[in-house]
Specification:
The protein has eight helices and 18 strands. With about 300 residues, it is α+β, with helices and mostly antiparallel strands. It folds into three domains: about 80 residues, Roll (Structural Genomics Hypothetical 15.5 Kd Protein In mrcA-pckA Intergenic Region, Chain A); about 80 residues, 2-Layer Sandwich (Pseudouridine synthase); about 100 residues, Pseudouridine synthase (2-Layer Sandwich).
Length: about 300
């Protein structure tokens, strides 16, 4: 195995043979006891190719990257509220944001945000480190969100967003039993003075928007949809689901009549993009909230 020492937050190893995770860690961490290595694994301090793994028998393949967080990094992670770090490298931090947490505060708001917490997290070990906003999620939407750790990465991604981003997948819990197994909604979106986005089937000078959806499961009350964005307009999924006749659960602004989740039924499940430094396509996933699945079961 090849060892690469990064900042004190994590040590990274490259796998050179097919092996299970626990034996690999025991080989890598010879100064630690077996029980100590097991504890590090159980606490979630180990990631494989950027994805946290706790299973002892997880199979590793040559070329994969295994990173081990220090105890201090693990402690910093535990201080985060409504934010879970999915992946971190020298250029990017990918998080899973919970519903109800602002991505970034407005000029008139001073409440806790994902941006502020990620900034505090990186500055706990490097006080001069800055964090840059790449994109945002609505306050009531949960899921995968990305920050840059330097301005060059931020500008590269923002200026070439449509070229770099290969997949934006959401999961939506909507009202009613969606009849079609799959479909595509194409329309023009415009925002009124009350900040509600309206969908028009004809070009009215708004922004052209395309949303693809696939029904995962449904019952008489709710449907669980996999939603792929071809364009990324403000409130696109919410406006398109209202137009389809199946508003997102909890979305009173866009036609919902129920709120059994006590939150918006919208989750950013996966983000796939070309990494600006490596040029390779990477994909990060935030697990679908279990309540979305249970509410839409037959």
């Amino acid at each position: 195995m090849k060892k690469k020492q990064k900042t004190y937050r994590a040590t990274e190893y490259t796998v050179t043979e097919t092996i299970e995770l626990l034996p690999f860690l025991l080989q890598a961490m010879t100064k630690n006891s077996r029980n100590s290595v097991k504890a590090i694994l159980t606490r979630g301090q180990v990631a494989v190719d950027g994805q946290p793994v706790t299973q002892h028998n997880h199979s590793l393949q040559p070329g994969q990257k295994v990173s081990i967080q220090s105890n201090q990094a693990s402690l910093n992670h535990s201080k985060l509220v409504g934010v879970t770090i999915i992946h971190e490298d020298d250029d990017l931090i990918i998080i899973n944001k919970e519903a109800g947490l602002l991505s970034v505060a407005s000029k008139t708001e001073n409440e806790l945000t994902a941006y502020r917490q990620v900034t505090n997290y990186v500055q706990s070990s490097r006080p001069d480190q800055r964090v840059f906003v790449v994109h945002r999620l609505d306050k009531d939407t949960s899921g995968v969100m990305m920050f840059a750790k330097n301005e060059k990465t931020q500008q590269t991604l923002q200026n070439n967003w449509n070229e770099f981003v290969k997949e934006r997948m959401y999961t939506a819990l909507v009202e009613g039993k969606v009849v079609s197994e799959s479909g595509t909604i194409k329309s023009w979106l415009t925002e009124n003075s009350a900040f509600k986005v309206y969908s028009s089937p004809v070009d009215n000078g708004g922004q052209y928007a395309v949303t693809h959806y696939k029904r995962i499961q449904s019952n008489k009350d709710f449907s669980l949809l996999e939603v792929l964005l071809e364009t990324g307009r403000k409130n696109q999924i919410r406006a398109h689901m209202e137009e389809l006749g199946y508003p997102v659960v909890g979305d009173k602004k866009y036609g919902a009549t129920s709120n059994p989740l006590r939150r918006l039924g919208l989750h950013a499940t996966a983000l796939s993009f070309i990494h600006p430094r490596t040029g390779k396509i990477v994909r990060y996933v935030a697990e679908i909230p279990q309540i979305f699945i249970s509410r839409s079961k037959k």
